């Protein structure tokens, strides 16, 4: 995707929204997530704009790198591409379901998803193929999709909470949801999605990067 072809389509909150046609959606997973077959990023860019985000370095342009958090690219043909890619995989390997990491360089439940519902549509495409799915997010919006998530047979949901102290969160990721909202969301997911012998479901809190937690907040963070 070349930035020269991008045109701002709309504003969502303070973010410039671009829409592009992606050539592929499932990308071979590499590096620290190479244990998975693919990464899947419905969007480029991320409205949370965390100050430590390594994904900012993959911005296609220095100006966009500087403006990390203020732009999002929607892969508007993502549903159609994923349908084709999964069908192709299934034809070649009917007895081997792929493992998919959603997402490695964006948050699939960033604020725009409330309007766009692209992640939700992609979950619907994935369901018949029953991939091993890992969802990495810091957004309570994921609870919107409990009806779909409960139908996956192999699912891990990682909720990112890098600190137990709100002032630290506000310093490093001021646009992201509160720690309390994230803890409540993971609690809701655990209680709403039933685990039985046919379902391998895991829920985790990922503390990366490991930001400081003030001593007075440690106990509450650990208990929760
Ligand atoms: S939520 Fe994740 S992808 Fe988005 S800015 Fe923060 S670290 Fe980066």
Description:
Helix 2 runs parallel beside helix 4. By secondary structure, this protein is of the alpha/beta class. It is globular and about 55 Å long. The protein has one domain (22-42, 78-223). It has a six-stranded mixed β-sheet with strand order 3-4-7-8-9-10, with helices on one face. A four-stranded mixed β-sheet has the order 1-2-6-5, with no helix packed on it. It has eight helices and ten strands. Residues 46, 48-50, 53, 55, 106-107, 138 line the site of iron/sulfur cluster. Iron/sulfur cluster is lined by residues 46, 48-50, 53, 55, 106-107, 138.
Defining key terms:
four-stranded mixed beta sheet, 224 residues, alpha/beta, binds iron/sulfur cluster
**Overall number of strands:** 10
Q: What is the CA-based Rg, rounded? A: 18 Å
Q: Which small compounds were modeled alongside the protein?
A: iron/sulfur cluster
Shape: globular
Task: Please give the alpha-carbon distance between the first and last residues.
Answer: 42 Å
Helix percent reads: 25-40%
Q: Main sheet: which strands, in order across?
A: 3-4-7-8-9-10
Percent strand equals 15-25%
**What is the number of helical segments per DSSP (H or I, 4+ residues)?**
8
For the sheet with most strands, the description reads: 6 strands, mixed
Run of helices and strands: EEEEEHEHEHHEHEHHEH
